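Q: What structure does this chain adopt?
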Amino acid sequence: MFLFDGPPGGPTLVLAHGAGAPMDSPFLAAMAAGLAERGLRVARFEFPYMAARREGGGRKAPDREPELRRAWLEAIQAIQAIESTVAPAAVGAPGGAAGVWIGGKSMGGRIASLIADEAGVRGLVCLGYPFRPPGAAPAVVEKRTAHLRGLRTPALIVQGTRDPFGGPAEVAGYTLAPGIRVHWIEDGDHSLKPRKSSGRTEAQNLEEAAAMVAAFVAG
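A:
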C-alpha cells in the first residue's frame, strides 16, 4: 500500500515513517502536502510491522534492521515501477533508482540512509534524524552515525534545535560526509514542533522544512 501526493511527473521523493507512527501520521501528511504544493511527487509506504498493525495485528515492535532495509529497497523498486508507467522521465531508467530521492521521519530516514548508496538514489532527506536515543550508550551512538562519515549520496538532514535525539552542540561533534547538509529548525523538537514561548508555530516550522526539502531536491 502506498500513498501518493503531488503531480505525476514531478521529482519523486519516497518517504518512510518513524518507529511509532504510520505513513498517514499528521507529521508526514503535512510534509507530503507541503512538498506536493511545491511540485514534488511524494510517495509514502509502510514497513511490514506497521502494515500489520493497520490490518489489525495489534501494536507490533519495529522489524529488525535487515527486514527494514529489505522493505526499503523493495519499496523503491515498486514505486519506481508504478511511477514509470505515468512519467518515465521522472524516475530514471527502468531497473534503476537514479531519478528517485528517498528519506523519511526518524527511523524511516535512518534506514533510508543505510541503503541510499546501495540503491543509487539521487539524494537523501532525513526529517529528524535519530542520532541517538536519549541516554543511549556510546556504542549505540556509534552505530547510528558511523555510516554517515562515508555516505556518498547527497543528503539533507532537517533537525529541530531541541531534538533530544541530537541537538546542534552534539551533532557538531560528529564527523559527517561532505555531502551531508544539516538544516536547523528553530526551537523544533523531534517532530519540529516549537514551544509556544518561542514565538514560532508548528505550521511555520513545517513550512520551513518543506521549503528546504523542495530546494534540496530542485538543486
